[in-house]
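Q: Hi! First time doing this. I have a protein sequence and I read that you can turn it into a structure. Is that right? Here it is:
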Amino acid sequence: MSNTASLMVITRRLFPALALAACTGALAADGPQPDSAKGKPMKMDEPMAGEMKRDDMTKGDVKKAAEKKDREMREALEKEQRSMGGVKK
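A: Yes, that's right. Below is the predicted 3D structure, encoded as structure tokens:
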């Protein structure tokens, strides 16, 4: 695969994650959080709130899915960087 094709594959895989991270960061920076959310740990067995929630999904499920996706993307990026002669492990 040529470098251009590799770059396109990486871009297609990363763009949705980067867009989500940018939106999440922008939303988090909108204003201060209520005092109740600052000191207490999140209860992972509570159902998700918001427009995109699913009936059977809890906060813990979302966190686990995000961590899994992060691991997968990190491995894919490291593999791609190694193939291009960047990071060596």
